[in-house]
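Schema walkthrough. Field components (list of strings):
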Amino acid sequence: MSAPTPEQLHDVRLHVNGSVHEVQVPARRLLSDALRHDCGLTGTHVGCEHGVCGACTILVDGRPERSCLMLAVSAVDSEITTVEGLTEADGSLSPVQQAFSDCHGLQCGFCTPGFLTTITAGLAENPDPTEDEAREMVAGNLCRCTGYQNIVKSVLRAADIGKEARS
Amino acid sequence: MTTKLFGTKVPRVEDQRFLRGQGRYVDDLLTDDPRLLHAAVLRSPHAHARIVDIDVSEVLDLDGVVAVWTWEDLTGPMAEPLPLLIPHPTLTHGRTQYALAREEVNYVGEAIAFVVAVDRYVAEDAVARIRVDYDHLPPVVGIAAARAAERTVHDDVPDNVGARMEQENGDARAAIAAAPHTLTLDLDIERSACTPMEGRGTVARWDPDTSRLTVWSSTQTSTGVRGCVAAKLELDLAKVDVITPDVGGGFGVKVVHPWPEELLVPLAAKTLGRPVKYTEDRREHFISSAHERAQEHHVEVGFDDDGRVLGLNVEFWHDHGAYTPYGLIVPIITSTQLLGPYKPQNYRVVFESLYTNTVIVTPYRGAGRPQGCFVMERTMDAIAAYLGKDRTEVRSANFIQPDEFPYEHGLVFQDGRELTYDSGDYPASLAKLKELVGWDEFEEFRAEMAAQGRRVGIGLACYVEGTGVGPYEGAHVHIETSGRVKVATGLTTQGQGHQTAFAQIVADTLGVRFEDVEVTTGDTRKMPYAVGTFASRAAVMSGSAIHLAALRAKEKALRIAAEALEASEDDLEIADGVVSVKGTDASIDLGTVAVLSNPLRYAFDEASKAATQFSVGDPGKPPVAEDDEPGLEGKDFYSPPRSTFANGMHAVIVETDPDTAEITILKYAVVHDCGHLINPMIVEGQIHGGVAQGVGGALYERMAYDESGQLLNASFMDFLMPYVTEVPTTIDIDHLETPSPLNPLGIKGAGEAGVIPSAAVFAAAIEDAEGFPITAMPISPSELFELRLAHADEPQPHQPIPR
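Field assembly_structure (string):
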């Protein structure tokens, strides 16, 4: 085996939840790892590292992305939102977070951040989903605890909370 | 008066931190500690091989690598095999692996070397540079190969049989021989696994100043891990603390301990003097944690014209993988819980537990019960089909009746105690289920659907679940001078909402506000005596212990308050944290009672000022009476004589596509009896999750090993865990509450219930839709399609079997 070469580090400026994080990372560092271990934002969870489970879903410029399928160096020009950034400015829960509490949409809480970000983006696009659309909205995320029925309810409840807030 | 919280849908206190991304799971810990090191494991790529040589010479050259261990570097107890946690007299050939493989590997994924580096990426680079020379050995994969024993897993186990166990009540074979009717069935279940969203993980920190080791592990038993770490690292128990932080699901796999990494991480932390973290990745979870479920069963049953079982003889073969660290718990549970709500007059069961060159098998939610339920319920359906009777009638003919409790089966359960059911009302449960699913109206529905060219079927399955196994759990309740109540119990939590359910119990028992109660689980510093969270035991065991401990604290509070208020204890009541004399304005806060309970020397704040020895008590007596102790606390343990038996019945209506054989769930109904419900919202959540896991196990999930012992689907791309699109859109749930007489709250466990009858109920419904027997689960559309072809030349295809 060839002699190892020391890894080149890159200065990366990540914009996360309205704050700037200056981190030094190798090119191969996953965005999920950079957020968790370099920025200390451990709310984003890693469930499979191959883009299937959705636990690590974050919002990149408002769009849901799997942070385990992105490199930190490729996120420099983006505005990132993690679960920590979903909470309202006054510290209260966002409509989606509140809905999960109201509907028992979570148990162990490990997959929850990925659902919260996914649904936040989904409701931004479709604020008044039908039940089928609510189901479709979460159809790319895995949960092993809840059986999903209460997650679908949470989507509809979040839409209702959003409507109440707008009216 | 404080509102009673027991039995109400109290929102979970855990949710606040989880929803804000403020949960703390093992991999979240010490992330800002610059001294933290990360571990990676070299795992065997072969199912069966001798290790000729391990060359690690290229590893330490790598920038950032700190240390590497192989078996040769281990000493003392660490170099010995891992413990066989639950020995049994019939486990005559128990074998366990080493923390790092010594000379031989017996499954793909077995740990061989352990590398510690500055980050996980570098540690994995290092693992890739380790060269191992193997002598390949022929692998044993699957139950048929294990039974044939043409090849062996362990040289000194020539027939691959780790254990053979037999139990009998009555004379089953004679009863079958004498019965008016007999049937034989062969019934198989494949491998699956818990697959929690969070894998295993361990962090350890050695403190050289205090010579103390702190271990954080995503375990279902922190006290178990503590005992193992202390024994293996030759440390005094008092020098080891194990803390289980938030855990991202367990479902059984995390009760196994010590995992190799659970010992190697503390060893590395102590050796290197720096904190070390290991976090399992998803592929590792598939190939190096644990699986379950694979069993093959042969049934002989004799019955009368009413379908009453007169004799039942079951032989089965259990695939326990390469090693037996968790003993025989799974097959023992199958062999005893197979009986469900029925009372066969004569029952014999024999099993062999077999070695294969695959991942170890340990309890997965349900733990042998799904297989047992499948066997018994398939047998009931076969009897009904044979006699041309309604399937519910045959079950009714075999039910244990409500007036027959406690019912003794004449067998020994997994906890070593008599298999004795404490309570239940199976006829009432069945009546509820028939109503809920529309059993009596189903033929009409079938005809309507048939008129549209659609094919539907209905199935039901009943189970009884031994929950709340011993030996014990404990609790400590401490009322602080602020009036806030701190509660500690030693078992761990993985998403069941224990902090909420236990706080409900304390609030009710003590008469304090729910918001004032804070519950800690799984921290050996706060409660060093505990067993763990498994076998649907947490609510029964710790719930009862917490209730008893709170009663003790309450007793003391009333005694002190009675003295302070110059009233009789009988005239006092506690509500919202205030003790008052009934019918008067005289009252005292519990916090003040706590002040009075603890005479102090020093006044460090207002509350303590009121408690100095100069202001409380009778100066003629000792400040703390001879038979008393300072503080307002209660501690107690709950240890039941035997398990308490929950039960339930599920029914499902499925549609099978006549062309594609796709299986669609149209209706799913559950009747569940777990005694009194502490929090119905949490119980229903447990059922939802169990049903989803059951759907996975019945229709999608399997471990696809090839003949060389490679797991072909070790990823979420290929192991088909259900998404929302695969589960029933709604589950109709009805509860029956027959309280357990064995604990003070009348509760039974609920955690595993949802998953137990799934294979049985889906097999029954698909069989009903298709008209031919379903004898092996899980079943995929392509397998159903093949079965249709195999049965195509039978007369009148798809004629529903008699109901």
